[in-house]
Amino acid sequence: MRLGLRLLFAFFLINGIAAFFVLRVFTAEIKPSVREVMEDIMVDTANILAELASDDLAQGRMRDGRFAQQVRHYAHRPIDAAIWGFSKQSLDYRIYVTDTQGTVVFDSENRAVGEDYSRWRDVARTLRGDYGARATRAVPGDDTSGVMYVAAPVVVNGQIGGVLTVAKPVSTVQRFIDRAENKVLASGLLLLVLSAAVGVAVTLWVVWNVRRLRDYALSVQGPADGEHAASTEAALAVPQVPGELGDLARAMDRMRARLEGRDYIEGYVRALTHELKSPVAAIRGAGELLQEELPAADRALFADQVVQQSERLQRLIDRLLELSKLEQRQHAQVRTPAALEACASAALAHTQARAVQRGVALHLAGHGTTGPWEAELVTLALTNLLDNAIDFSPPGSAVQLEIDGTTVAVQDAGPGVPDYALARLGERFFTTARPAGERSGSGLGLAIVRRVMALHGGHMDVRNTLPGLRVTLHFPAD
């Protein structure tokens, strides 16, 4: 499972469990809290009414006394109150009074007068001097039909002379409970959605930074020769990430610098050792033979071989130095715009003598543009292309240097290269056989060309044309 999915799964699991328990606690506490407030208010109401009823109870006029009349008037009062968005249009208190035996002597609804309520908790506990209250369902098994009863003692001559109970249906406050629960649930769901969005954002941020570190770690192995300079520079830039990830990025940068230096040296040492074997062995063999008595013709032949191999070593060293300097750079240094035609003319001048020596004609055709390129590097690339084309061209043939806008193509009349080798042209020290059994080159010429193109953000295309090989350099436009 990917890191992002794991983080999201863990976040949603923790967030979901926390939200479940929090919402459950809130919803579970709403109903008891409302009933507790309701009971507290009913306690005050019962005690006030008990004081008002004490005189009528002492005089035995509970059924038709002033208290009874006022309670009946209360029950028939018109009411239309807007309470926090709800309309209240009925008065819901039921009030009844019992004597010291628990017999109902007054009922505001006239349905329990004369009945024995001494066994009900509200009456029994109050007659004993305790706090009396109860909640009873009007319909068994139906929680919505519950009625809350709160009693207060009616004191007559300093003693408990009866009990006054205030009753109120729980359903009258149920709508407030339902609204509060709905608000809690809606707010909880909104909080869950917002926290999920934050979790997704944080996860994406973490994954994005981790992927930047991953891409940077992959760049430690070094860019390919054909990569554009812009992408190479971006890949090698240290990611600017905060906290511990930033410390990790800087540590990886120091590691990259050490690895690049070591791998660079090791790779060049191995490649250079391999390339030096043949010319050094040839020079040594020719030198040993020259120590002996040889005919003048043979001595001249071996001496010429020493000179040729020395020149080969010199070319190898020069190109290695050039490629080494290019690979240490991250981009071209453009001081003034360069004209492709001027660079092509300079490259032709550098290779003209060698072309005449091998009997190969050089031709320049087309027109190019001026762009933000480093003239010396462009000339170096074209010179290496022409040298390579001259090496593979048979005597009496021609090498065409064609310019068209921001592209430059070099076309020779040689045998071309095998199709399987096309993709590898430009790798350091990768070469193909020269015509007529000549010694193979170092493979550094096209490596220099590809590096020059990478520094300019361009690229090199190679294809067989039968006969010949065509190498096209594509420079980026402004």
From TrEMBL:
**This protein's record includes keyword Transferase:** yes
Question: Matching Pfam families, A to Z?
Answer: HATPase_c (PF02518), HisKA (PF00512)
Q: Which EC number(s) are documented for this chain?
A: 2.7.13.3
Citing just one GO molecular function, the answer is:
phosphorelay sensor kinase activity
- Subcellular location field: Cell membrane
Its catalytic activity? ATP + protein L-histidine = ADP + protein N-phospho-L-histidine
Entry GO CC:
plasma membrane
Q: What is its main location?
A: membrane
* Residues of the Histidine kinase domain: 271-478
Membrane-protein topology: Multi-pass membrane protein
| Matching SMART domains | HATPase_c, HisKA
Carries keyword Transferase? yes
Instruction: Write the record's keywords in alphabetical order, separated by commas.
Output: Cell membrane, Kinase, Membrane, Phosphoprotein, Transferase, Transmembrane, Transmembrane helix
Q: What's the protein here called?
A: histidine kinase
